[in-house]
Amino acid sequence: MSVHKVPVGVSARHIHLTSEHIAVLFGNNYTLTSLKPLSQPGQFAAEETVTVIGPKGSFEKVRILGPARAASQLEISRTDAFALGVRPPVRESGHIEGTPGITVRGPAGQVELERGVIVAARHIHFHTKEAAEWGIEDKQLLRVKVEGERAVVFERVIARVSDQFALDMHIDTDEANAAGVSTGDTAVILTD
Amino acid sequence: MSVHKVPVGVSARHIHLTSEHIAVLFGNNYTLTSLKPLSQPGQFAAEETVTVIGPKGSFEKVRILGPARAASQLEISRTDAFALGVRPPVRESGHIEGTPGITVRGPAGQVELERGVIVAARHIHFHTKEAAEWGIEDKQLLRVKVEGERAVVFERVIARVSDQFALDMHIDTDEANAAGVSTGDTAVILTD
Fold this sequence. Notes:
The structure is a homodimer. Chain A has helices spanning about 20-25, 80-85, 130-135, 175-180, and strands spanning about 5-10, 15, 35, 45-55, 60-65, 75, 90, 100-105, 110-115, 115-120, 125, 140-145, 150-160, 170, 185-190. Chain A is α/β, with parallel strands linked by helices. Chain A folds into two domains: about 5-10 and about 120-190, Barwin-like endoglucanases (Beta Barrel), CATH 2.40.40; about 10-120, no CATH class. The longest helix of chain A has 8 residues, at about 20-25. Chain A is globular and about 55 Å long. Strand 13 of chain A pairs antiparallel with strand 13 of chain B. Chains A, B: It catalyses: propanoyl-CoA + phosphate = propanoyl phosphate + CoA.
């Protein structure tokens, strides 16, 4: 049996915005500037940041990830959620029905998101070819181990398969800190 | 084979202080007041709190746990460590050789700890009788599972056995948030 290794990418708190919200926050016809490309093709961390304001606390310099999306979405850790005073569910990206909102402030204006705050469900991006070779299907739940002094097996890690994806396991800062791992470390998919 | 269940106790950031440091922070002959008893016999959360100040950030209202100890020790999560700007190792309580220091401020004065900042290594307190019945030895490393939508197996959980202890698994807020568990939830010790 072969061992399937996956690079780990730690997602700090970040926000995806619609074109409409970018216009309110930064001005009409404003275009995000790429600071650096992300692991998934076409995605980038923008130079621009916003302030997010919850009922209990706020965070400045929250990174925008581009390009613009069909719905705005703030992804935070559960630790962040306590600090902001919101109670977001653990969700897959894009599944924002029934999630709490938040206030977002930019240099040109402010937006009240009615929904879109989530704790991102941990997941692994697979390219279609790799997934086929490894016998992994889209939406499959995986068990994934990271070694070290805080070694952890993450259960229920969602497989996401697309020919637009590059191999990467995405966890949030709580998960990374609990397991003592950083971006660039390696995880192993366990086969029962 | 029997299933061994353990209650989970989540430790938020907290500090243990020597009598000398309590005197500097709160005044000569000051005695801590118990706010509520903790799971371990004789231990209590004090009404008193302090401010801890690192090179990058600070936290107010950090709870003191009593009674006074032989060495002062600040226990924080890795998330907290990034916010404060310190790099503490993962350590068992009391093992503070070579750990970073921090500034602690109270209503009557300020103390510069030369060392004592740790990220507490996750552990389970067992009473001697229970440990004997379950075949668990002091210092043994255990694998412990928590169920739920963020189900996790924590590896390398340290067993601590004493006739002064009550059964409780102690994890920090990063670990609790990563696993989606709260104080009072139940974990299960895995037997291979």
